[in-house]
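Sample intake sheet
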Amino acid sequence: MRKIILSAIGVLLIVFSFLFAKKLIADKHKPKPVKEKVVKTVFTDTVKNATVKIVIPANGSLVAKRRVELYAEVQGVFKSSRVLFKPGQKYSKGQTLISIDADEHYASVQSAKSELYNTISAIMPDLRLDFPEVYQKWQNYLNGFDLNKSTPKLPEMTSDTENYFITGRDIVSSYYNVKNLEQRLSKYKIAAPFSGILTEALVTEGSLIRSGQKLGEFIDASVYEMEVALSKGYASLLKVDEPVVLHSLDGTETYKGRVSRVNGSIDATTQTITAYIEVENDALKEGMYLEAHIDAREEQDAIEINRSLLLEGDDIFVVRDSVLDVIPVKPVHFSETTVVLKNIPEGTVILKKAVPGAYTGMLVKPFDNQSTKTNTK
C-alpha cells in the first residue's frame, strides 16, 4: 500500500513539472507590451507683435506740496480771536492765523513816528528861506503824513545841498528807524500765505509766546506730492508732465496725477533716482499711501508674457508640429510678474502657461477650448 501511494505522488510530481515547464516556454515567446507615448496638453498662444506700454510701478505717501512751519519772531501773549487756533481749522488766504499782543511795541512805533514828524516840521522855516525850490514838496510830505498809517517814503532829494541839509538833521536815520519798527510791528500778526488747513497747533490762546518758538504747521490741502524712488535704469525714461495713474491700497479708488519734478542726481548709496508725482483731489489727505503706475515709454513690435515663461539664456518654448522647441528672444523690460520681449516672429505659437518638466522635443497637444465647450453641451 505504501509503494502504491509513493508511486502516485511521483506520477503527480512528473505531471506538474511537465505543465510548469510548458507554461514557462509559452511565456518566453509572449511579445513584450509596448509603452504608449504620453502627449501632454498645454495652453498656447499665437504671437501678435504690437506696441507695448512700459509701466513703472512705484509707491509712497502723500505730502502737501505747499507747507509752512509757523515760528514766532517776536515775544508776547497770544491774543484770542474768533477762529480757534486748533488742528483741522481752515483759513483763507490773508486771514490772521495768530495775533500777538503788540500794544507796547505799537506805542514805541507811534512815538518814533511823532518824533520824525516833529523833526521835519522844525526845519520847514529854514527850508522856506534857504531852499525855497524844495519847500513845497516837503510841505506836501507833511500834509500826507498820517500817524495811523504806514510812514510814507521821504521825498526824493534833487541836490547835494538839500541832501546834506536833510541828512544833517538826522531825518533820514529817523525815517529808517521808524520803518524798522513798523516792519517789526507787522510780525505780531501771522497771516495765512494761502488758503489751507492747520495740521499742528503747539500754542493756545493766552499763552506767552517767545521769539523763535514753533507755533504749528499750515498746509495747502488742495495739492499733494508723492515722492518715489526708482531704479537708476529708469532715469532716461522719466519725463516731466508724464501722466500717472495712482491707486489706493485696496484698489477701490483711482486718481490722476503727473510727474512734476525729477531729481537731477542719483543717490550714491541706493542707486535710485527720486521723482515727484503731483496729484489734486478733494478726497486725498496728507499721509495717505498710494501706488503709482508711471507710463515710461512705448516699445514697438513687442509682446508681454509672464516671467515664468522666460528660460535661462533668454529663450522661450515654442510649439512646432506638436513638439516643444526653444527660440532666442530679446528681453527689454522686466516687471514683478511680466517681461516685455522682442525679436519673436509674427504668428509663432508659444506656451501661455509654464509646463512643469518641459524639455525640447517633448510631445504636446494644444488645449482646444472650443472642443471642450462642445463636449460639455
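Comment: Helices lie at 2-28, 103-130, 132-143, 160-168, 171-186, 369-376. Residues 104-186 form one domain.
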